[in-house]
Write a structure and sequence with these properties.
The complex is a heterodimer of chains A (451) and B (265). With 451 residues, chain A is an alpha/beta fold. Chain A has 17 helices and ten strands. By secondary structure, chain B is of the alpha+beta class. Chain B is elongated. Classes of the chains: A alpha/beta (451), B alpha+beta (265).
Chain lengths: 451, 265
């Protein structure tokens, strides 16, 4: 099966050069061209271009970037914050972008700051990205040196400062209001909504736009090539290309930038130029379509196109219908030998560890799920544990359907229920076997899944 | 342990100047403190609290929230092995077990020589190189048992000291200078841009209004001409409709019938 050849929008340098992170390579390959063009336009024209391109935010929620900008409250002080706190399990696209092409990120940030007339921009990067932090700081220094930052950028009269902010290891800071709390020097706990959008009230109570790293990386190309060229790629609401992070039991785990909607999960996992198939020629058991928070898919979903609505409106596995989500664009492939109960427990423990503790259903529920799952995995579970799991999940995410009803301020709590409910719905016999059998202690290494 | 040395305090002061509110510099400041001592000491956190204008307990409350801040001493090399789903599928739990045996400590503990602390960490976004590990947040992977042993040997022998600085040193590239744009200048610029936008909007509104007025005038002229033409032709019909309006009972009857029809449908 051939994949249509489309321009690489955000990985053009990363895919072609070993020194893609240097300012020399950046300037030699059209660096700052998009910014120069943007500065000849009015801020509203830049906003209009992004709105027409229908670029969906690449962070996970898939909200139209241009629409988010247009919701900005018109106040004299406005901020732009770039969310680079990539911590969703099995997501590693932003890690690649900040290490591989930091100058592109900085250029996109300046363009966006111009479009929303921000007075200062912050690039909040995950603290663990030591090399990424160094490279983005270098890119910011280089931008000042090339007068792409600071006063009177390229003689346009527009001025901007960018500050690179390191996080310190907290998954919850990827939630935009928690990120703002963290940026204000507080514990990273999500803020109570409403106001729903920081565009109305964000950093220091001022209107703030929070955009993802990959969203920013798209900006230079959109401005240089025009919104029509971008909107011509993909279909429906999902335009352009997107990076999908493929990991797990595939022959070629990596980040792949492919055209949205025109590519399917099957292409991504099995195409020779992409995933190259399930490792060892084994059968596919199931896969996570969009980060740990997304309900899982089975082989019957392989031909779904990689589009926001296509995945969202598909018929998923959870009771009550509803599909899954493209989320952060990370796909984890599990082969036929995978112990799905153990995999679901590992994700449950992740959410239990990362719950910030603000809302009771999440704080108590996630650790409860972790403990019950752990005893099932270890062979100490009882048949009643399965109903207990459903009950606890139902208390965090009422209805157990997707998209979920909320009992918590942010999506972390209900997300924790999704992997467990998916595994329990798709493979009930594996759970039943675990809880029905005589207790047996699993020795270390018994859960071995590596080929 | 100690407060920030003058050199580190200078860096802290420079960092605070980057933010509209100095509390925003708290996380970067704690990283600076951790760079000095390898962990966060009580004296150090008190010093940071003085700098940003908080109570020491507030600084501790923030520091204790984040996994990367250590309030107890850790080894020179903090080895974090990811066991989240992508790495787990590739055998990360076995790798962690092996690492515990190789270093002769459980995860969460430090070797007696103070060289290594072993941690089990959540996804560190290096999943295409699974199973992976980070040493002081520098990435290594994919790792097998042999390559992990080789990594530990290299670290012990100091062969990786350029790639992997001691624990606490996070960002070795320094920002060059403080903010370049004076806040006053930003406010002035925004005022100019807002003025331009308002001017443009006013211009557009005026143009639109003129267009609408012209349109309305043309329409009313046309209608007047039409009415004049019709007025002459329909004088007889006008008289007839006037007669209908004079019999309200009839029209009420029609309305009632229409109401029944609606109910029926």
């Amino acid at each position: 099966m051939a994949i249509a050849t489309v321009p690489r929008i955000v990985t053009s340098r990363i895919g072609s050069y070993d020194d893609s992170h240097t300012i020399d390579r950046f300037l030699a390959t059209g660096g700052y061209d998009g910014l120069r063009k943007a500065l000849t336009m009015t801020p509203e024209q830049v906003q209009g271009e992004v709105l027409k391109s229908n670029l969906l935010g690449r962070g996970g929620a898939g909200f139209e970037a241009g629409k988010k900008w247009s919701m900005m409250r018109k106040a004299p002080t406005r901020y732009l914050v770039i969310n680079g706190d990539e911590s969703e399990p099995a997501t590693f696209k932003d890690h690649m972008l900040v290490e591989g092409d930091p100058n592109q990120l900085v250029e996109g940030t300046i363009i966006s700051a111009y479009a929303v007339q921000a007075c200062q921009a912050f690039i909040y990067l995950r603290g663990e990205f030591a090399l990424g932090l160094e490279r983005v700081q270098q890119a910011v220094n280089d931008a000042y040196r090339n007068s792409a930052l600071g006063e009177d950028i390229f003689g346009s009269g527009f001025s901007l400062d960018i500050v690179v902010q390191p996080g310190a290891g907290a998954y919850i800071c990827g939630e935009e209001t928690a990120l703002l709390e963290s940026l204000e020097g507080r514990r990273g706990m999500p803020r109570i909504k409403p106001p729903y959008f920081p565009a109305a009230m964000g950093l220091y109570g001022e209107p703030t736009i929070v955009n993802n790293v990959e969203t920013m990386a798209n900006m230079p190309w959109i401005v240089s090539n025009g919104s029509a060229a971008f909107a011509a790629l993909g279909a429906g609401r999902s335009t352009g290309t997107r990076i999908f992070a493929l990991s797990g039991h595939v022959n070629r785990p990596a980040n792949y930038e492919v055209e949205m909607v025109k590519t399917t999960f099957r292409d991504l996992i099995y195409n020779e130029a992409l995933g190259g198939g399930v490792r060892g020629g084994k059968e596919l058991k199931c896969f996570v379509p969009g980060g740990a928070s997304a309900p899982w898919f089975g082989p019957q979903h392989l031909d779904l196109p990689l589009g926001q609505d296509e995945v969202g409106h598909s018929n998923g596995v959870l009771p009550g219908g509803g599909g899954s989500m493209l989320g952060s664009g990370s796909i984890v492939v599990m082969d036929e030998n995978t112990d799905v109960v153990r995999a679901a427990w590992r994700l449950a423990r992740f959410f239990a560890r990362e719950s910030c503790g603000k809302c009771t259903p999440c704080r108590e529920g996630t650790s409860w799920l972790d403990k019950v799952m752990k005893r099932i995995v270890d062979g100490h579970g009882s048949p009643g544990d399965l109903d207990l799991l459903r009950d606890v999940c139902d208390n965090i995410a009422p209805g157990l359907a997707f998209p979920y009803a909320m009992t918590t301020i942010c999506f972390l709590g209900p997300s924790a229920a999704m992997p467990i409910m998916s595994a329990l719905t798709m493979f009930p016999e594996e759970f039943e076997r675990r809880v029905g059998a005589a207790p047996l202690r699993a020795p270390v290494g018994a859960g071995r899944m590596a080929p | 342990m100690s407060r920030l040395a003058p050199e580190f305090e200078k860096r802290a002061t420079d960092l605070m100047a980057l933010y509209p509110q100095r509390r925003s510099a708290l996380l970067p400041l704690l990283h600076v403190l951790q760079e000095q001592d390898g962990h966060l000491s009580n004296d150090g956190m008190e010093h940071v609290a003085e700098l940003v204008g908080l109570m020491p307990a507030e600084v501790l409350s923030v520091a204790s929230f984040y996994d990367m801040f250590h309030t107890e001493p850790v080894g020179r090399y903090l080895i974090g092995i990811c066991t989240n789903i992508a790495c787990m599928l590739e055998g990360a739990e076995e790798l962690l077990h092996h690492a515990e045996q190789r270093l002769a400590v459980k995860h969460g503990a430090t070797t007696p020589d103070g060289l290594f602390t072993l941690e089990e960490v959540e996804c560190v976004a290096h999943c295409d190189k699974a199973p992976c590990a980070q040493v002081n947040y520098r990435y290594f992977g994919p790792l097998a048992e042999e390559s992990f042993d080789a990594l530990v040997d290299d670290l012990s022998a100091g062969r990786l000291k350029d790639e992997v600085p001691p624990h606490g040193t996070l960002i070795r590239v320094r920002r060059e200078g403080g903010l370049r744009v004076h806040p006053q200048r930003i406010i002035e610029e925004r005022a100019i841009v807002a003025g331009q936008i308002a001017d443009r909007a006013a211009g557009e509104a005026a143009a639109k209004k003129a267009l609408e007025e012209a349109d309305a005038k043309r329409k009313s002229d046309e209608e007047a001409a039409k009415a004049e033409a019709l007025g002459r032709a329909d004088e007889g019909q006008d008289a007839e409709s006037g007669a209908k309006a004079a019999t309200p009972a009839g029209s009420a009857d029609v309305e009632e019938k229409a109401g029944q029809k609606e109910k029926g449908s």
